Amino acid sequence: MPIKFPIDKFHFRSNSIFEGLPENELTYLEERTIETKVKKGQTVFSEGTRPNGIFYLKKGKIKKYKTNSDGKQHIIYICSSGELLGYPALLSDEPYSDSAATLEDSIIGFIPKDDFLTILEESNVLSKKLLTNLSHEFGVLVNGIAAFSYKTVRERLALSLLVMKDKYKSDVDDDKPVEINLSREDLANFVGVAVETLVRLLHDLKKEKLIETEGRKIRILDPKQLIKVANVY
Length: 233
Hints:
By secondary structure, this protein is of the alpha+beta class. 42% of the residues lie in helices and 22% in strands. The chain contains 8 helices and 11 strands. It is globular and about 55 Å long.
């Protein structure tokens, strides 16, 4: 029996929220979306500030992260094209519980708070989709916490690479290998290890012919074996 990686356990599905909405509701949202080109490394929102709307990532990558008292980041999640950001804080009327910044040049749509809440009150379809997605995102966060609690560093790295492979697959054609184009520092902050430890573990995976690297880019050569290393089924 082939080994399958349960990506939905570690991947938000917010890119499906607008799918299936009535045409008039989609038009309403599109007309009120403010589109901005944002350079790599720019802050989208900061922990502790209050939301004025929601963000829709049209193109690019964004990291969501927490910062400790020493200024070190722990990356909680990486958003790819089609995903929504910031709506849990908006719906709960609370400050952002984390920060977000672009990992590459991106195109971001912003829907103002009043416009989004107006369509939310009128749309049963959107309300149900948001409720479903919030429940799913809670499960993803629980799975992530569990993985960090009991998995070894090697297992966490393998799991992180599998998640990143899914994140970056939309950047290439189906017949081309997926390249994970993430700095070693950001990958280390996602896995939760020192950069030096990450580099050593990547070297080990290269020796085992599970991955190959070219500069900062990482390509997975043997996903089935990497799933076994991640110890997740």
